[in-house]
Write a structure and sequence with these properties.
By secondary structure, the chain is of the alpha+beta class. The chain has one domain. Helix content is 36%, strand content 14%. The strands form 2 sheets. Strands 1-2 form a two-stranded parallel ribbon. Strands 3-4 form a two-stranded antiparallel ribbon. A hairpin with an 8-residue loop joins strand 3 and strand 4. Helix 2 packs parallel to helix 3. It starts with 8 loop residues before the first strand and ends with a strand.
Length: 103
Amino acid sequence: MKKGIISAILVGNEKKIKEIAAKLNLDLTNATIFNEENDALAVKRAVKFVRDKEADILMKGNVTSELSLEESWIRNRACGNRKYFHIFSIFEVPTYHKLIALT
């Protein structure tokens, strides 16, 4: 967000999100936060943003991988032939010409 390359949509417990951001000195001024205190419902809502093309990338936050993958996979299968990848990390290496994704 600092570099202006993303617009963040955060879905989860708004109070906790703001507490974590404050501890990490993150500015959430330009982020959109949707308060959802139930993890399963938060994941469903986030997946829906991607499915409805209101967001481009789903990033797992502070929820279990099992919950995130299960909901994402179910929704993805229901949406047709869209590709689905679980990326653990993305690296930018100064000596390489493109990003490297670890899946």
